[in-house]
Write a structure and sequence with these properties.
Layout: E1 11-17, E2 23-28, E3 34-38, E4 41-48, H1 56-59, H2 67-78
Parallel strand pairs: 1-4
Antiparallel strand pairs: 1-2, 3-4
């Protein structure tokens, strides 16, 4: 790593996914008031609502929405009510 190109607060930080309690350690400059201890080392903690470990697109649990089929179904049920 080159010297003097990173900010002074560039350090290891723990990011925690609050939906599935998964944590991962990476380097960041993000500010945090909370800390967590992992393997005897204290790290700053950043809590996230969703990450790639819980996002439906990345986990393969995404529901595909067939909008054309839904519109056709709606029109077949309710589309002809105002026609006389």
């Amino acid at each position: 790593m080159k010297k003097d190109i990173h900010p002074s607060n560039y350090r290891e930080v723990v990011f925690k996914d609050m939906s599935n309690e998964e944590t991962f350690i990476t380097r960041s400059t993000v500010a945090s008031k909370e800390t967590i201890e992992i393997d005897g080392v204290t790290y700053p903690l950043v809590k996230l609502e969703i990450t790639s470990s819980s996002h439906p697109f990345f986990t393969g649990k995404q529901k595909l929405v067939d909008t054309a089929g839904r519109v056709d179904k709606f029109m077949s049920r309710y589309g002809n009510r105002h026609k006389k």
